[in-house]
Design brief:
Length: about 140
């Protein structure tokens, strides 16, 4: 019985000692911080491979409304010879690039080689910059 208790004690100590060993070294720096920053810098981004081949933007206009809110309009063009359905939204940002007012996704149906205008208006006066995002509708 004493042998069993001794072996059990050794096993418990081994488990406790191995549980304390760790390979963590603390915080890690983010990877690829200078790559893929289009959403932070570009006014128009395509969020899916299908949208990248099918959609382009012809023109983007922005204006400040009389009440101080930002309004954005973009001419979205279908580059394909087929009807496509995409979704678009606009992330309104402050002067530092922090999103202060994301708009809901809107469905946009583009017929063959057509161009449609889509509009967004911010809900508050803090919006100074924007990014229009387009993805495939599923």
């Amino acid at each position: 019985m004493k042998t069993f208790i001794a072996l059990f004690s050794v096993a418990v100590l081994a488990v406790i000692a191995s549980g304390c060993a760790t390979s963590e070294t603390g915080a890690y720096a983010p990877q690829n911080t200078d790559k893929y920053t289009y959403e932070a810098t570009a006014p128009f981004v395509l969020m899916s491979p299908g949208a990248q081949t099918s959609v382009t933007v012809a023109d983007i206009r922005s204006e400040t409304l009389p009440d101080g809110r930002l309004q954005v309009a973009a001419n979205v063009r279908n580059r394909e010879n087929r009807r496509i359905q995409v979704q678009a939204n606009c992330d309104f940002k402050d002067t530092n690039g922090i999103v202060v007012d994301p708009s809901p996704w809107q469905t946009l149906i583009l017929t063959e080689n057509s161009m449609e205008t889509i509009q967004f208006a911010s809900m508050n006066k803090d919006a100074k910059r924007y990014t229009i995002r387009v993805r495939e509708a599923r």
